[in-house]
Amino acid sequence: MSMENDIERVLYSEADIQKLVNKLADQINHDYADTDELVVVSVLTGAMMFTTDLFKRIKVMASLDSVDLSSYAGATTESTGTVELIQDLTNSIEGKDVLVVEDIVDTGRTLAKLVDVLKDRGAKSLKICTLFDKPDRRVADVKADYVGQIVPNEFIVGYGLDYNFLYRNLPYVGVLKPEVYR
């Protein structure tokens, strides 16, 4: 069985995604040109591919860390509403500029929880970069500073985005056929 058979249509090709990553990296490089050290915090596991591609294009002095949070449980397309911190940062962010990198901002619950946690740790500044933003689903008051693309309220997978831990390895982003998750 091929993963491609489960995709209704491709929204963003590999080339489209790389253009978005380049655009975001240019904005970040401009905005952080004078920083002493930028701490890039990847939100696992979905943002791994995006973070890797983005981090390679960041030209300022930067370190990389990660956190893992979840508000989804197994084979579901709906958030449980409860956000759990699964893996914490390994280094202190006190007094540093922090850029949180997320694959998609959907309900915003996960990101709102993470922002609260990081603000309590004394970051000098805190900004959010997301490849995709789905504002139609937002329930938490959170807004990304850097947005690659606003996406429709459809269930998308690929390039790190998953359904039931699968489809992350697709090199593009596509809409998952509803019969796959219903």
From TrEMBL:
CDD domains: PRTases_typeI. GO terms for molecular function: guanine phosphoribosyltransferase activity; hypoxanthine phosphoribosyltransferase activity; magnesium ion binding; nucleotide binding. InterPro entries: HGPRT, Hxn_phspho_trans, PRTase-like, PRTase_dom. The keyword Transferase applies. Keywords: Cytoplasm, Glycosyltransferase, Magnesium, Metal-binding, Nucleotide-binding, Purine salvage, Transferase. It is found in: Cytoplasm. Pathway: Purine metabolism; GMP biosynthesis via salvage pathway; GMP from guanine: step 1/1; Purine metabolism; IMP biosynthesis via salvage pathway; IMP from hypoxanthine: step 1/1. NCBIfam families: HGPRTase. This is Hypoxanthine phosphoribosyltransferase. It comes from Limosilactobacillus equigenerosi DSM 18793 = JCM 14505.
